[in-house]
Design brief:
homodimer; mainly alpha; Farnesyl Diphosphate Synthase; two-stranded antiparallel ribbon; globular
């Protein structure tokens, strides 16, 4: 990545994150279920790269809209992403005790409250879109449809289910192939990243062609993101990642480096990213989204 | 309940349940995450009284609308109710191995898949409303808002959190009072039952006054339902209920019979039901909903 593109990413983050976090970090301050609100807030505040909200707001800008138009969708995406991390970290799933450098939700609040905190965040994602009267009812219900499809059994949750079953297969010595790995990633990580870009399009009233281009770009970015995630898990230190690393291989999890080798995985990453960027060229204002897409493919954590 | 009212309840069930179940029982037959779809389907098909969908469709009829207008809301309600049962039954929550006379979801599919089946059903509830193009975008997004508010941290999930914490308080010998019990029930059971009635109003385009009356009636019916649930847990056999009974007291759970005595709880049940029925009197076509409300308060399981 050029120094210029890097500056653009930094400038966009400095501009967009305060808009996002001003609304995002304060939603669960009242209500009767105080302990639950604390548990939800704990994971929202744990940080992270805010990849999905930023992609969503940049997609709105890429078609000439305002980032603020996509704010409720951006919040909903991060609620869904955060709930999925809480549930994935549970002992019955990936059994992680460290996330973004902090103890995971169930370690702090107990398993029962952590399950409920995830349920609460998932539900609130739809609430925050429904309550955004700055968007027409048509755009809001379209956003709900896109998000529910991407997050549900045909998308993210389905991918997590296959991934869990895959670990069981691996332990039983059953073979895997690249096609199966791609299905899991398309559902588990890809669907919500694709939706991030598509929701920016929906919120900013994209034309059909613009939405189609962003949808395709989002799918490819989702795949690129996952390949880089696998590469990082195989090559980074725990300190850099803020979570346990090398655990994919330790658990016999199928990953791109395992299937394609490290160099093969890097080639696949570059090729996928370039295909995504091609899709963005026809849009009126793609430079920030393009820079961010390159940044994601080259990120160090 | 008079024999005539009983006949009306039976006739309405015979009329409404086939409409509901024809759509409801078949949604997860395809897709890539086959095992997850099986897990979701398993709990949907496990039966139950379909209280929420029937209340929703009868509320639509009570204001002169058609039951079919409320079908997607009815499905969404039962998806949410079913997901909440799957998660409540988990070892980290109420730790139940029997539900509706069948092994609970996590006993059959494992804890990880059961958590995901719940997540999938919760997400699909919003999808099924968003996809119902027979309702205007305005009504669909209003339905999403009502459902998310009732099911989320300000409603059902918040109530379950307080209930879990309450069990811990009881084990620690801390005192409870009626007010605290009512908050838990208003959130945990009441919010979704109120939403059932309110969603029928939203789907069938109720006037403001009609919606207000149904909302109040729904709140009171939710409370009555919970009082009767507590009474049944204290007095019924496991065979009648299809789940473990007497466990509330065994776990030191606060219930209406514990706080008010069995006779006091029965008086509270009757009084609450009558107040709910008062709210329905002004509606154009309340007889079926009225009969069903009486039936619920007198049900044997």
């Amino acid at each position: 990545m050029t120094a210029q593109a890097n500056d653009l990413v930094r400038a966009d983050l400095d501009r967009l994150l305060p808009i996002f976090e001003a609304k995002y970090l304060l939603p669960f301050q009242s209500g009767e279920a105080v302990r639950l609100a604390e548990a939800m807030q704990y994971s929202l505040e744990a940080g992270g790269k805010r990849v999905r909200p930023v992609l969503c707001m940049l997609a709105a800008e890429a078609i000439g809209g305002r980032a603020e138009a996509a704010l409720s969708c951006a919040m909903a995406l991060e609620f869904i992403h955060t709930y999925s991390l809480i549930h994935d970290d549970l002992p019955a799933m990936d059994d992680d005790d460290l996330r973004r450098g902090k103890p995971t939700n169930h370690v702090v609040f107990g398993e029962g409250q952590a399950i409920l905190a995830g349920d609460g965040l998932l539900t609130e994602a739809f609430q925050v879109i429904a309550a955004d009267t700055s968007l027409s009812a048509e755009r809001r219900i379209e956003a709900v449809a896109v998000l529910a499809e991407a997050a549900g059994w045909r998308g993210m949750v389905g991918g997590q289910s296959l991934d869990l079953l895959g670990e069981a297969l691996t332990r039983a010595g059953k073979p895997h192939d690249l096609e199966h790995l791609q299905v899991i990633h398309r559902l588990k990580t890809g669907a919500l990243l694709r939706a991030s870009v598509e929701l920016g399009a929906v919120a900013a009233a994209a034309t059909c062609a613009q939405r189609q281009a962003l949808r395709k770009a989002g799918s490819l970015l989702g795949l690129a993101f996952q390949i880089q995630d696998d590469i990082l898990d195989a090559t980074s230190s725990e300190e850099e990642m803020g979570k346990r690393v090398g655990k994919d291989e330790g658990k016999g999890k199928i990953t791109y480096p395992v299937l394609l080798g490290l160099e093969g995985a890097r080639r696949a990453l570059n090729e996928t990213t370039e295909r995504a960027l091609c899709q963005l060229q026809s849009l009126p204002n793609p430079s920030s989204l393009t820079a961010w897409a390159r940044f994601l493919a080259q990120r160090g954590n």
